[in-house]
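Regression test case RT-17, inverse folding.

Input:
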């Protein structure tokens, strides 16, 4: 898995119910816009699923996931109770390494590759406990083409990406996570890239490595 030395990266992949998994790297990373999935998940928890959402809330969720609209995400952040509300959602969803960004800075939420996969499991796995998870998964399958890079390089069809130049350093945070049609869940978190494009290349390479490793493990165990 070649990775540019200027960046820092962690990747995790798993197939729920099989034990097949791949992990490389570790640590905490800023989510950037991948947290928009978290915001919609927190909203669904508050309403007990998508059936309880207003038309306005549905529109905010769709804009946040499908088009990565920042203004919509800021409204969702307030609707779920800001950082305390988001942190409560993390506890309910079993995320142990994620902490909400404070004071309106939802994009500065910190997380790990492992927690990104845990969240994906709540959304995409058959045993996922998130109410309204299929609706959220559907939104992640409709991300506009120009934002559908990242884990899509490894075959993910439902995903969300995040990209952010840090004001203090000018270096880019680049992340991507999502699910493949065969049930494989994959997440890549990274930072420290001088250009967005270099981060994207590294993220896509890491995603392909992780998915390939998981598939090899399943084949060795006699899985499909």
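Golden output:
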């Amino acid at each position: 898995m070649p990775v540019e030395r200027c960046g820092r990266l962690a990747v995790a992949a798993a197939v729920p119910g099989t034990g097949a998994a791949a992990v490389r790297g570790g640590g905490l990373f800023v989510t950037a816009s991948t947290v928009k999935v978290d915001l919609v998940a927190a909203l669904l928890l508050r309403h007990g699923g998508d059936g309880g959402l207003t038309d306005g809330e549905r529109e905010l969720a769709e804009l946040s996931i499908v088009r990565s609209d920042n203004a919509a995400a800021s409204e969702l952040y307030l609707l779920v109770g800001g950082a305390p509300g988001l942190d409560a959602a993390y506890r309910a969803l079993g995320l142990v390494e994620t902490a909400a960004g404070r004071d309106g800075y939802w994009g500065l939420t910190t997380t790990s590759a492992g927690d990104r996969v845990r969240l994906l499991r709540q959304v995409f796995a058959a045993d996922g406990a998130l109410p309204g998870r299929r609706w959220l998964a559907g939104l992640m399958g409709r991300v506009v083409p120009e934002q559908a890079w990242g884990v899509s390089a490894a075959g993910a069809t439902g995903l969300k990406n995040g990209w952010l130049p840090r004001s203090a350093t000018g270096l880019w945070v680049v992340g991507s996570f999502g699910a493949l049609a065969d049930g494989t869940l994959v997440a890549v978190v990274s930072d420290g890239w001088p250009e967005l494009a270099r981060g994207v290349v590294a993220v896509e390479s890491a995603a392909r490595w992780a998915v390939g490793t998981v598939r090899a493990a399943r084949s060795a165990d006699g899985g499909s």
